[in-house]
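Predict structure. Chain length: 412.
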Amino acid sequence: MSANSSFELLGSLSPIAGVSLGVAEAGIKQISHKDLLLIVLDEGTKIAGVFTQNKFCAAPVIVAKEHLLRKESGSSIRALIINTGSANAGTGEEGITHTRFICAELSRLLNCDESQILPFSTGVIMERLPVEKIISNLPRVVANLKPDNWHSAAQAILTTDTAPKAITKKILLGGAMITITGVAKGSGMIRPNMATMLSYLATDAAVSQPLLNKMIHNVAENSFNRITVDGDTSTNDSFILIATGCAGNLEIFDQESPEYKELQDAVTEVAVYLAKAIVKDGEGATKFITVKIESGRDSDECAKIAYAIAHSPLVKTAFFASDPNLGRIIAAIGFAGAEDLDVDILQLYLDDVLVFENGGRARNYSEEEGVRVMAQPEITVRVVLNRGKSSTTVWTCDFSYDYVKINSDYRS
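Prediction complete.
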């Protein structure tokens, strides 16, 4: 069973009071394909965002960050406009001009200021944004606005994805029922350094703006910042967290309160689900791999080793072949850059099978056990460094023939 085929969209998606969504087929890259999404927010909604750290960040990322900064001085965000089919990255001043023009036209339709619009794009880099197609379809996407359009929203942001990624979670918080609904897209060019390619999470919980800003960084660090498909960080990565405050709970102001922790844990759970779904839907993926580094000296060391394993093409192709070529994993641990690493005391496990200890193959390890584990659709690689108390977890996938096929055909 492949990682792609094992992923399923979970159940029904609950609306979030204060959020409406509209979709349209604008024909940006292909016809009869949902490729334009509008998310409209009630006044008073709070919003936080984190974005790619790629130096060639896309025009919509530049403009969205500017508009979020203006929001802090009093202007609340009222809408998000997202297109697929074109990343509008590496497009210079023209790309910025096109992005601002779309925001201006949409603000006229929504009767708000253009700085209250956040733009997002995904697709091919260094290609001109077909701004005319987007502008001409803005009235259609506005007319399609509905609170229960989350399924369509999840579909409208896809590019090479094979399945939509969306989930709803409900919790009881301070006597009020809180709903969290989120969507994401991503399949290739995945090694986020803040978030994922595109993800939008909304909740009806009431939480202060400073705590929402704090929460999004904590959530990203423990979810989207722990996945990799191919080691490439997109020019367009954006993660947005929305809180409408319509649930009726007392607004959360204290980061030490149990309510804040419960809400952050629930939002993180939603984000982790979406992050894992991106890896399971990795371009051509057939295996979902969890890399756990334990008993490290510090978190940075653990992350270095985890990503060295998760990024190694030799390791990833061995997983695709179900070949327990343990030397590739050992080599990745060794070149990760951990200082003074004592290879004689570390242990390596495939699931619960000890395969390496005391500087060599574990005494009771058999090739048959390794083959059995590697043939599974989901596998855990666990490295115990035995030199500290830090740990980290990274989620990745294998490299198959289809990864090359998908990316060699991406622009056709």
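Summary: The chain has two domains: 3-278, 288-408.
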